[in-house]
Amino acid sequence: MHGRPRIAPTKEEQEASSLRAAKLRDLQSQVLNFHHNKIYTKEAVEISAKLLESNPEHYTGWNYRKLAVQYLLDQQSENGVDSNSIQSILDEELRIVENALKKNFKSYGAWHHRKWVLSKGHSSTDRELRLLGKFQKLDARNFHAWNYRRFIAGLRKIPDEEELQYTTDMIYDNFSNYSAWHNRSVILSILLGKREKGYHDKERVFGEEYEFVRNALFTDPDDQSGWFYHLWLLDQTLKREPVLLSSWPPHGSNLCLSVDGSLNDRQTLPVPHFQSKARTFPLILYFSEGVEGVSSSTVTVESKCHAGDDFTWMPLSANKFGFSQAWLTYLKFPNEVHSLEACPVKVTVAHAAGITSSSGMPCSQSCHISFTVIVPSDDRQHSELQTTHRISWKEENIRSCTTQSLEADILRSLCELEITKENKPTTPKWSMETISNEIAHCQELLSTTNCKIGKLTLARLLMARNALISYGNPHFGTEANYEDVLALYRDLMKMDPAHICYYEDEYSLVLLKQLTSNVGSLMKHCYQYQESSSPSMNPYLCVRLNGLSLSRLGSMEQLLWVQMLDLSHNKLRTIEGLEALQLLSCLKLNNNRLCSFTALEPLKTLKSLEALDISYNEIGAHSIDTRRYLCSSPLTHAVGNDWNFKKFTDEDVKLKDHWDAYLLFKDLNLRQLEITGNAVVNDRLKAFLCKLMPSLKRLNGEKCC
Amino acid sequence: MEETTSYPSIEPSNFDLIVVGTGLPESIIASAASAAGKTVLHLDPNPFYGTHYASLPLNDLVSFLESQSGPQSQPPETSSDHASISLVTRPLYSALEINTYSSEPIDNSRKFNLDLAGPRFFFCSDSIIDLILKTGINQYMEFKSVDASYVSDAEGKLENVPDSRSAIFKHRSLSLSEKNQLMKFFKLVQGHFGNESEEDKIPEQDLESPFVEFLTKMGLSQKLKSIILYAIALANYDQDNLEVCKDIINTKSGINHLALYHSSIGRFPNANGAMIYPIYGQGELPQAFCRRAAVKGCIYVLRMPVVAVLMDKDDGTYKGVKLVSGQELFSPQLIVAPSFTFPSTLGPSPAQVANSCDAKEKVARAICIAKKSLKPEVANCLVFIPPRSLYPEQITSIRVLQLSGNVAVCPSGMFVTYLSAMCGNVEEGKKLINAAINALFSLPTPGNSEKSAADSLSEHIEEKPRLLWNALYIQELTTGSFDSISRTMMPDEHLDYNNLLDATEKLFREIYPNAEFFSVTTLSDENLDDGGSELDP
């Protein structure tokens, strides 16, 4: 059924097909008429059968038949139950479904109808198994048939072990059967979940499964079906509780909150200063994977300044199911706090059960973060210094942090802070052994076979091992294999250019992991930025990751403290992950491959962002920009109704032309924006942006009118 | 020989071709000649079809082998207008050895259909299968799958032959890297035959080199090489020992075998693997060709010995034959089965007669009967015992075919196992076959074979099937020859009929250079006059 070339129909075929279409249309209108008028006569039902046997995809037709069958069954029960006639009504349905499936054995509607009939409980499942056998012969991978098989196995109460054996047989027959491997993973999950006899020892079962699939991988490394199963096994092997990776502020830190960003008392306090106008302070928790259930009941915040405060936690990077790696709340410091008063704060994560990962694993290990915030008095009148100066990004303003300096110490202290967990979860020995074993096998395979999916798997395995080591070992310094992994991805980009975007993304993630894996390598990218025109300002903590060919961002948990970030001259197509950098004030994204405003959506949560450079990207360069419609848009109903039309009714600037820019910028408080070098830019857009953001002082270096 | 004299008289007395013996080559030629419009008389002194290619009940097989092993009695002298030369049979079997450990097989003699020329099977893509389909004789035959093939070691431990992708995947003893190597090699060969691009082709110089060297070059392990050479390419001789090897397989023929193997898998939807076997035995095949010949007008007379060949008195050329009934029949061409010979030097071509038997190699064959399969749960299977597996001096591969009651060659519950191996002389042949039998079967010790209680107990403990009966014999290998009296070949040492079919077609073309060897158009109306002209006294 796969890989058949499409042949253009001849004239005769076209004529025949239009004739068939006319017949179908006629049948269809008749059936719809019966449906609307609730006509369930014998003739009407027969016409619907005709329609469905030639077009099994007519879902309304199936629904009509369900109503008709229900009507006939109800009639039967009124006349007294006659099991024979019920049987014959249902048998007729099964016959029609079978004919429909002969026409198209991948018809969702037909399979669903069959399930519906079977759930009435009057039909023999023996016949269904025979039918499934036939479908298996036609196409062993037909996932509809496999799906239906699970349904029938449930009805017949076939033991899961028997069904597992069936997948074994089918895989022995031909191991290029994604559906069989998939069903195997489903059944194994059930068996392991139930801890049935012979399945309580997960390690032994998985050991055998690795062995089983390895035979397929070595026999035909180019066949992907086994690799998919292998990936599932790896996933199960690495499955662990979600843990808190990092936080802002970091555990053990002393921070100084400054309202205006000026250098008050900095000489006496060698601690980082952070500016906040509203005397609020972001508190960020960053987990090892997306979790849900972060709330005031699962996370407690103890602080004498915040007694009685109710903390609302917001997901920062939530997927549509509400799972997010980064969670945010705000600490609000009341005005009456006295000058230079140190306020110790203790956060307990997973204080109570409730935080769970998307795979259902609970975060059961509670952990603490303690830090101290020094809040200056607010009795001084603040100048508007920091709010007026312009960020020039001049090289002379950027100072390296690699030397021994006060700032370097501060940065180092931020990078090195560790979360204390009461019971640090240790990596199971078995996971580590399994991964090492799989790495050895993968390397053995690759020593004789140049196989792209094998290389990809090896790269994933090496990264998984690194992750396991870093969980098990509290100290940095496990970057043993990063260069090997990067080399593998470089190979893959050459071998398999069709999937280069994926490899570039993975390469970027590994590279960022490598850069952030220890203080030494991270410090090489850390700088301080101080505008020469305003020397009294607090310097920004700056990270430069420019010119690294990054196409995607990762390892953001290591950069939660960054105030200024240079990502220019990369290949970024997305900036997912930046939403966690809540302290970010200045962001350089020029000379990347961002191709729409909606790709900048993560910026919407960055309330401190003031200076943004997105010049020389590809915004507006692609006439068909699918990404624009994948994100929230007026079409998805995901955005609020707060469209401020009045503002834009009079002018030639039309809101409907720039809805994506509107959605992005309406919540930002930018003072400075560089947007030049994008196809979308014109005077009207510039005027629109100036109007949209009253805070905007400079657009493309020019003062906003 | 029949005591009675009720031999039928044959009309007419002149034919285009007279064939004596109903072995497979004779039957194919009779059938092809009939299809080409020739008048053919097909005679056989035996009461059954097939001659050396027959499948026989157990007792009949033994008596046929006995009759063909010893020295021949002189035929009665006859006289006629023509010079006549007595036609006698020469012994082509020797060292016949029968061991009966249980009377059960003999008691059920008629329930057996034992192949004289076993072991033999078909690959689904064999040329003989193409011929069977082309001639339509598949309507007279039915086939069943040979379920599996194995390689055996000296202890009789059987391992699957990894002959397909799924078999490689399932294989229990190949290492992961061997699986990888073997599948890569299969893909290489597929690429060669896929002829999509020149770079996928195996270079010409490799094709001409010994297959074993090519396999080494491709990095295959010793174990894989052995499997490919002896269980897939079906090599007879030890390919690693090029000095003693009498038949070195080159890469071209090796990969052709592999391609045949792979194209056989899945050719027929109801055949599981690459190999099939005809129900009721290989003897069905010559019989089916005879039926096809009969449909085309060939006249059949079984139990009709030919006592003499008639020669022209003047120039000594062939004229006709004299039957045991005394009737004289004439034809320009005569074909005889390989066992017929002429005692005197008066023969038309004594040199050819001598030549046809000059092959020094013989083939040792054995038939074993047991009540248990070599491999539990498997009915029909092949086993290969590669050279040097049994003992260091074993230079030929031993091939084993086990068949069960499901192909109607034995009573259900019993298993017939054929063995064959090439050998230089009788002693070597016996040593080879006996060593193989010892590896695969357990022989009842003479003392307690009668004690049934002990039997059942030991049967329970033993893993190997116990031998109930076996026959061992050495068969001569002869080639065919062409003249006005042509001779066909004995069953060759191979497991298939490819060489035989080539030789037979060649012989047919020599006899009838202008006739077509089975034209496709002759398929038309054979169902209507099925078997109309078959004669049987």
UniProtKB/TrEMBL annotation, chain A:
Gene3D superfamilies: Protein prenylyltransferase, Ribonuclease Inhibitor. One of its GO terms (biological process) is prenylation. One of its GO terms (cellular component) is Rab-protein geranylgeranyltransferase complex. Keywords: Prenyltransferase, Repeat, Transferase. The keyword Repeat applies. Pfam families: PPTA (PF01239). It catalyses: geranylgeranyl diphosphate + L-cysteinyl-[protein] = S-geranylgeranyl-L-cysteinyl-[protein] + diphosphate. Its EC number is 2.5.1.60. The keyword Repeat applies. InterPro entries: Leu-rich_rpt, LRR_dom_sf, Prenyl_trans_a. Belongs to the protein prenyltransferase subunit alpha family. Catalyzes the transfer of a geranyl-geranyl moiety from geranyl-geranyl pyrophosphate to cysteines occuring in specific C-terminal amino acid sequences. This is Geranylgeranyl transferase type-2 subunit alpha.
From TrEMBL, chain B:
One of its GO terms (molecular function) is small GTPase binding. Gene3D superfamilies: FAD/NAD(P)-binding domain (3.50.50.60), Guanine Nucleotide Dissociation Inhibitor, domain 1 (1.10.405.10), Guanine Nucleotide Dissociation Inhibitor, domain 2 (3.30.519.10). The keyword Transport does not apply. GO terms for biological process: intracellular protein transport; pollen germination; pollen maturation; pollen tube growth; small GTPase-mediated signal transduction; vesicle-mediated transport. InterPro entries: FAD/NAD-bd_sf, GDP_dissociation_inhibitor, Rab_escort. It is found in: Cytoplasm. Its main location: cytoplasm. Keywords: Cytoplasm, GTPase activation. It holds the Pfam family GDI. GO terms for cellular component: cytosol; nucleus; Rab-protein geranylgeranyltransferase complex. Substrate-binding subunit of the Rab geranylgeranyltransferase (GGTase) complex. Binds unprenylated Rab proteins. Belongs to the Rab GDI family. This is Rab escort protein 1. It comes from Sesamum indicum (Oriental sesame). The gene is LOC105176092.
